[in-house]
Design brief:
The complex is a heterotrimer.
Chain A (H helix, E strand, L loop, with lengths): L1 H31 L6 H19 L2 E10 L5 E7 H16 L1 H23 L9 H23 L15 E3 H4 L8 E3 H23 L1 H11 L1 H6 L4 H23 L9 H16 L4 H18 L2 H6 L3 H16 L14
Antiparallel strand pairs in A: 1-2, 3-4
Chain B lengths: L3 E10 L2 E11 L4 E5 L6 H9 L6 E6 L2 E2 L5 H7 L1 E4 L11 H14 L14 H13 L15 H13 L5 E5 L7 H17 L4 E5 L2 H7 L2 E6 L2 E6 L1 H6 L1 H8 L4
Chain C lengths: L5 H15 L1 H4 L17 H24 L7 H17 L4 H23 L4 H20 L3 H4 L5 E2 L18 E2 L2 E2 L3 E6 L2 E6 H22 L1 H11 L1 H5 L5 H26 L2 E2 L6 H14 L6 H18 L2 H8 L4 H11 L7 H15 L3 H12 L25
Antiparallel strand pairs in C: 1-6, 2-3, 4-5
Helix pairs in contact in C: 1-8, 3-8, 3-9, 3-11, 3-12, 3-13, 4-5, 4-11, 5-6, 5-11, 8-9, 8-11, 9-11, 12-13, 14-15
The chains are: A mainly alpha, B alpha/beta, C mainly alpha.
Chain lengths: 343, 251, 402
């Protein structure tokens, strides 16, 4: 029982990331009909927004402290972050400590801007081209984006810690009346899950309860008809692309404390996210979310020793096996709509 | 006994009874037209004949064999060729290749791994295809990429692709849909020409009366998924039930 | 000749001549000159040209003719390499049994993966092949370590059986005594030329498979494959079953990939799982696109182009750049070096990605189409409508989206 709970929890953080990326992919696919291989790169860029923001926050100036000497006898150089200089050590220190969550504020406009630029500058010209061309051009874009990031940030992972308050682990078992030290779970992963849930909720309510969302949903169902109603669907779809980019970016921002970001993290997640989208059903938003969490959790279960000893290597391939089985038995995926990319 | 025998065919889509109880017999060497207003079930019926849909009830016998449960390519191999509403051709290929493919399909069956001898060395196939192209006055266009031709020529090419297979039954799905009057007349002429030149059995699905009356030997009127009457064009013209269900409507 | 039409025969002869004289052609600059860094006539690189050429030719039979975009062909490459190294370990260093096994195992793998993947088309097919390849890659790294030797990669150890090995046999890959990594050298007045056994072996194989691919392209079978790409609906209603056609194309291209992977191990007796990674699959897609999808020569050109520039670009560093621009005033020199720096050396992949995008956006027909456009620009218009129309994709391939 506790093992099941623990593995479920362990699957949640990866599942959340899959779900968020797959959600963005599906939004783009459902609205624009474009298969975006550069979506993983957006996730990665989000993560590097957090890195940049953390670095900006800790920009420091040097002062000489005459009261202290370094080992050569010169006055000691003291680095003080500007923020601490401006706001005093207490508030400044807290701000620096909270750099990752705070970068959300900074990442949203950046990601939306990147999304707009991508859609207007590139994707727009590929609506009428075959899906193979869309895959290829976005694949090229993904390589470019990741190499640019590599150029500026290097190839090594960059540790970006969570705020002090969220580091370490919590004994979740105790909370639900289990023995101590049975279900220990890192706090930040918990935060990530709730964050992902909030974002997913926000996207769904946006689509459900706003006029804008209603038009977009109608457009996803039948683009031509909505176009005939005289509604400028293209502009709305551009905005949706921006939103999808922001969702992927935020997923990346918050993921940095879980895994130190590196330039190829986007590609690693992308392949799996595609599998997630296909399993969930191309064009189905609830399907993407459901499949994201499902596959994350199943992956976590497959990496249990008991299961690995039963079927060796299952943890490495479980997601692909499920994808293959689902595609062959339910070609539309778990919740796919009829008529989406079928022959 | 006709070459195509449709008995008691019915098909439901959810709550909608698309086809009720369709009985139909297409005699050899005749042109049989199936007409009816929009939503009468013409396309559903056609799709049941070519293997795209499987009817819920009834039987479809072609040349003494059931077509039900067979895939479109198997049904074509039995001898049914189909012309589509919008011409379905191999757009990226040349006109000659478009006609060669059905030639090879007729000769080699649904699959043959002949990857070594060249297309050009199959002189008999090329000759057969060229004769066909001359028949439809397209021999001079043999090198053109099919998608670059006019719609009329595409229709002509598609017809050639079907005829070169020497089908026992040629199905035409609204061959003049969406065409201008002049194009429609051209198509009628082409079909008449084909009918005169060869012994061919055709079944035409059509809502354009002009086309139907100038070609058909027999006409079945379909309304709300069931055949209303089946008769010769002369009798159909004056039939009160038909007037009510179909001709009375604004056309 | 060889049952080919005149045009194709001359194409084959040109490729044969280029392959034969490649050691000269690729070494146009004297060894001591400053331009020697642009030479490509050394064995390792020439072998890669040819091997990736074979890989791309095979991939083009699937993607170019049928339009099915596989993102998992690297798996067959890896299978081929492992097969060859295993034959070294079990028998001896003769490459022939290994290559035969490589083609057969890759073919069997392709049959299995293709049988399942081809039940879907379009993006679903791409993702299925991707999933299979990633699965193979992950398995090769983990559970299959007894067969693949995991991260270390498979190689021959001293305690391997090698039952056919007798004293005096070569201890590196050879073909009946012709050792692959042996070369003959020729020096003429400052130029050095290397004639490598391995390269020529690969080149002969390339010519054979290139010839086969011409035959396939021109055959009724090849015509059917192009029909699959253009209009599957019409194909089905013409009495043709498209599934076995696509499966046959998939297996053939998988065998080509297995052969290419086998040759890699025949040149350098190693096999590693990274050869199966999906980036490797992406590379062959890129080569085919860059050269010209669906053309005979394109994939070979694309493979050569990418491997050449990968090699040259990754060798250029700041010192080289400063050397080039030293004639300029310092400020301008530094500026230029600064601009070019991100694109060369380790930044090669950035250039590659940009190139990829530019080709897909502006030149969907690849280098072959580019060449054709240039020829047309210079007024040498050829009669007849045999060429591709300018609008490269007049209609979406129906199996990609409908």
């Amino acid at each position: 029982m506790d093992a099941i709970l623990l593995q479920t929890l362990n699957g949640l953080d990866k599942g959340s990331a899959y779900a968020l990326i797959a959600l963005g992919l599906t939004l783009i696919f459902g609205t624009l009909g474009v298969v975006n291989f550069a979506h993983g790169a957006l996730f990665m860029i989000g993560a590097f927004c957090a890195v940049t923001f953390s670095r900006l926050f800790s920009l420091s100036y040097e002062t000489l402290d005459p009261t202290k000497k370094d080992f050569l006898g010169n006055p000691l150089k003291v680095k003080t972050p500007y923020l601490e200089g401006w706001f005093g050590p207490e508030l400044g220190g807290t701000l620096i400590d909270w750099a990752v969550p705070l970068s959300i504020i900074f990442a949203i406009p950046v990601m939306i801007f990147i999304g707009f630029a991508m859609e207007r500058g590139l994707i727009k010209h590929f609506y009428k081209r075959p899906h193979a061309d869309q895959i290829l051009v976005t694949f090229g874009l993904a390589i470019v984006l990741q190499e640019v990031v590599k150029y500026f940030f290097g190839a090594n992972p960059i540790p970006t810690p969570a705020p002090m308050a969220f580091r370490g682990s919590a004994d979740l078992g105790v909370l639900i009346g289990m023995d101590p030290n049975v279900v220990i779970y890192p706090v930040w992963r918990m935060v990530y899950f709730f964050f992902a849930a909030a974002i997913i909720g926000a996207v769904f309510s946006f689509l459900q309860f706003t006029t804008f969302g209603m038009v977009v949903r109608a457009g996803m169902a039948d683009r031509e008809t909505v176009g005939l109603l005289g509604i400028n669907i293209d502009r709305r779809f551009t905005i949706m692309f921006g939103i999808a980019a922001a969702v992927a970016g935020l997923a990346g921002v918050m993921y940095t404390p879980i895994n130190s970001p590196n330039y190829h993290m986007g590609m690693d997640f992308l392949v799996l996210s595609f599998v997630v989208v296909v399993v969930g059903g191309m064009g189905s938003l609830p399907g993407a979310v459901l499949a994201g969490f499902m596959l994350g959790i199943l992956e976590s279960f497959a990496s249990m020793n008991a299961i690995k000893s039963l079927i060796p290597g299952i943890d490495q391939i479980i997601i692909y096996v499920i994808a293959i089985v689902i595609l062959l038995t339910r070609p539309r995926g778990l919740m796919g709509r009829k008529g989406v990319m079928e022959d | 006994m006709g070459i195509l025998e449709v008995k008691g065919v019915g098909k439901r889509f959810g709550g909608l009874q698309a086809l009720g109880d369709v009985n139909l017999s297409v005699e050899q060497n005749t042109v049989h037209a199936i007409i009816g207003p929009n939503g009468a079930g013409k396309s559903t019926l056609l799709n049941c004949l070519v293997g795209k849909l499987i009817p819920d009830t009834g039987s479809v016998m072609f040349d003494g064999q059931s077509v039900l449960g067979r895939k479109p390519f198997e049904i074509n191999q039995m001898g049914i060729s189909r012309v589509f509403q919008t011409p379905e051709i191999f757009g990226d290929l040349t006109v000659l290749e478009n006609v060669l493919i059905p030639c090879f399909a007729r000769k080699n069956g649904s699959f043959k791994m002949n990857g070594i001898q060249s297309v050009g060395s199959n002189k008999d196939m090329i000759e057969k295809a060229m004769t066909m192209l001359e028949d439809v006055n397209m021999a001079d266009k043999k090198g053109m990429i099919a998608s670059s031709m006019s719609r009329g020529d595409k229709r002509r090419l598609e017809m050639a692709m079907c005829l070169v297979q020497e089908p026992k039954l040629l199905l035409l799905d609204e061959p003049t849909a969406g065409m201008a009057r002049a194009d429609t007349n051209n198509t009628i002429d082409l079909l008449k020409e084909i009918k005169e030149k060869r012994d061919i059995t055709m079944a035409i699905i059509e809502h354009d009366m002009h086309v139907v009356f100038s070609l058909a030997d027999r006409i079945t009127v379909l309304a709300q998924g069931t055949p209303l009457v089946e008769d010769t064009p002369e009798n159909i013209k004056g039939h009160p039930k038909v007037r009510e269900a179909y001709l009375g409507e604004a056309h | 000749m060889f049952g080919l039409e005149k045009k194709d025969t001359s194409l084959l002869v040109i490729v044969a001549i280029l392959a034969l004289f490649a050691p000269f052609i690729l070494n146009p600059f004297p060894t001591e000159s400053g331009l020697a860094q642009f030479n490509a006539g050394y064995p390792d690189l020439m072998q890669r040209f040819v091997i990736f050429g074979i890989f791309a030719i095979g991939f083009n039979i699937l993607f170019g003719l049928t339009g099915y975009l596989s993102f998992g062909h690297a798996a067959f490459l890896g299978v081929g390499s492992y097969s060859v190294v295993w034959m070294y370990k079990l028998l001896d260093y003769n490459i022939l049994p290994g290559l035969v096994l490589a083609v057969i195992t890759a073919g069997i793998f392709a049959l299995l993966i293709g049988f399942v993947s081809l039940r879907r088309s379009g993006i679903y097919f791409s993702i299925l092949t991707l999933a299979f390849a990633q699965m193979s890659f992950n398995l090769a790294y983990s559970v299959l370590t007894p067969i693949t030797n995991g991260e270390t990669g498979l190689q021959v150890y001293n305690n391997d059986k090698q039952i056919l090995m007798s004293a005096g046999d070569p201890t590196s890959p050879h073909l009946f005594g012709i050792v692959m990594n042996k070369s003959a050298n020729l020096s003429i007045a400052g130029w050095d030329f290397t004639f490598n056994n391995g390269y020529y072996f690969c080149a002969v194989i390339l010519l054979i498979v290139f010839y086969l691919s011409i035959r396939i392209f021109r055959s009724p079978f090849g015509m059917m494959l192009r029909a699959v790409k253009t209009n599957q609906t019409r194909m089905n209603y013409t009495g043709l079953n498209s599934r076995p056609y696509t499966l046959a194309a998939f297996v053939i291209s998988g065998m080509y990939a297995g052969l290419a992977g086998g040759l890699m191990a025949a040149m350098d007796p190693l096999a590693g799982a990274e050869r199966m990674q999906w980036t490797a699959s992406g590379e062959v897609v890129l080569m085919t696109i860059l050269g010209g999808v669906g053309t005979l020569l394109g994939p070979v050109l694309g493979a050569g182009f990418i491997k050449y520039f990968e090699n040259i670009f990754s060798k250029i560093n700041d010192n080289v750049l400063h050397g080039w621009f030293s004639f300029l005033p310092d400020g301008l020199e530094n500026l230029l070096v600064g601009i070019i720096h991100p694109f060369v050396g380790k930044g090669w992949h950035l250039t590659l990605g940009l190139l990829f995008m530019l080709v897909v956006i502006f030149l969907p027909g690849g280098l072959m189409e580019g060449g054709q456009r240039i020829r047309e620009r210079f007024g040498k218009k050829k009669g007849g409508g045999g060429g591709k129309d300018a609008e490269h994709h007049p209609k979406e391939a129906p199996h990609v989206a409908e």
